[in-house]
Amino acid sequence: MEFKSIFQVEFKDFLALRKAVLSKSAYAHDCNYLKSFDIYLAECRLRYREISEGTIIGWVKNLSGKSSSIANKVIVIRLFLHYLSGIGIKVFIPPIPKVIDDYVPYIFSDEELKKVFNLSDNIPFSKRRRNPYIQFEFPMMLRLMYGCGLRVGETLSLQMKNVDLEGGILTLLYTKGDKQRLVPMHETLTVILERYCMAMGIIGEAESLLFPTVIKESSLSVSAARNMFNSILEAAEITVKERAKWQRGPCLHCLRHVFTFKSFIEAEKSGHLIDNSVPFLSIYLGHDSLKETEHYLKFSNELYPEAMALFEDYTLEAFPEVTYYE
User: Fold this and answer.
1) Is 139 in the same domain as 230?
2) 69 contact partners, CB below 8 Å, separation of at least 6
3) Which pLDDT score, from 0 to 100, does residue 322 have?
C-alpha cells in the first residue's frame, strides 16, 4: 500500500506487524482504516512528526456510520498511535467512543414468508447460470436457515458427515468464534432434508457438500445465495420504505431472527417461562453469552405488538439499564 502522510514509513512498518497476527479479512479492515487515516493526516499537512489532540478530535468528528463501526475504526487507529508512542513519537490517544445499541432487525411476516418460500420453490431453470443446482439447493438452504436458525455460512459449509438423518441432528464444527455445536432439527425438516439428499445423490457420501456447485469440492457461495435471495425479495416486493440507518432491511440473515422470534413465541405458548428458555436458545444459536442473544429480542412492534411487552419485561430484568456517574 502507498501512504502519503509524514508517517508513511511508520504506517508500512505497523501494517507489517499486523499482517503477521491477523486473519486475511481482519488485515484488510486494518488496511482500509489506516489508509483513510493516512489520507486525513496528509490533508492536515503536518509540519512536525507528532499528532496533537486537535488533529485526532477533528478526525473522530469526521467519522460516519454506525457507532460500532466508528468504535472499530478508533480501536485500530489507537493501536497505531500506541505504536507511534512506543517509538518515541508524541501523539494524542483518543478514548474509544461509546457504542449505542440501536440495531433493529427486520422480521418477516407469515405472509411474506409464504411469498419467499413459494418463489424459492419455483426458481426457473436456466442454462446460463453458473450453478445449475441452485434451483434445488436454494429452497433446502432456506428451510435449514429458517427451521434451525443457522447462519448462512454455517449452512453452506455443511457436508454429509455433519448430518445425522436418523437422529435428526446437524453437527456444526467451524462456526463463528471457532465454536462447535449440535443442532437438533424438527422431524418434518429432517424428512425434507433426507429426500433432498437422496435427490442429490449424496447419501452415504461423507465428504459430499450439501450445496455443491458444478465443481463438487466447492459449495454455493454466500454472495450467490444473497444475490438469489435479493432477487426473490424484489419479486415478492418486500422492502422497507424510509428505513432508518440503524434498521436492517430484509436480508438472508433475518431468517435467523425470525427463527429466534418464533422460538420464543412457541415457548411462551407451551407454558415455558421465557427466563428458562433464553439460556437454552442462546446455546442453540451458538452465542457466546446471553448478552449476544439480547440482540435477537429486539423486534419491530408493528408486526407483533402482542409479543413486545413480554420481550421488554425480560430484557429489562436480564439486562437492566445502568446509570454511571463520573
Assistant:
1) yes
2) none
3) 43
How far apart are the C-alpha atoms of 187 and 166, rounded to whole Å?
10
Question: Do residues 181 and 172 make contact, with C-beta atoms less than 8 angstroms apart?
Answer: yes
Distance CA 47, CA 6 (A): 8
> Does residue 142 form part of some domain?
yes
Condensed to tens digits (0 to 9), the pLDDT of residues 90-105 reads: 999 999 988 776 667 7
Long-range contacts of range 271-274, CB-CB < 8 Å, 24 or more positions apart? 274/310, 274/314
What is the average pLDDT across 14-24?
91
What is the predicted pLDDT for the residue at 325? 37
Give the three cell numbers for residue 241. 420504505
With beta carbons less than 8 A apart as the criterion, state whether 112 and 101 touch: no
Which strands make up the sheet holding 169-172, listed edge to edge?
Answer: 163-164, 169-172, 181-184
**Residue 147 CB contacts under 8 Å (≥ 6 apart), including other chains:** 185, 186, 189, 259
Phi, psi values for residue 209, rounded to 5°: -75, 145
**Grid cell listed for 298:** 429486539
pLDDT score, position 243:
61
Number of domains in the chain: 2
Is position 207 within any domain?
yes
Contact in structure between 96 and 68 (CB atoms under 8 Å): no
Where is mean pLDDT largest: 86-90, 150-154, 321-325? 86-90
DSSP character string of 205-225 = -TT-BSSB-SSTTSBPPHHHH
Q: Residue 35: which domain range?
A: 8-86
161 within some domain? yes
Please check whether residues 77 and 114 belong to one and the same domain: no
Q: Tell me, yes or no, whether 152 and 187 share the same domain.
A: yes
Beta bridge partners of 120: none
Q: What percent of the chain has pLDDT over 90?
A: 54
Quick check: is 25 in a domain?
yes
Q: Give the pLDDT of residue 300.
A: 47
CA 104 to chain centroid, in Å, comes to 13
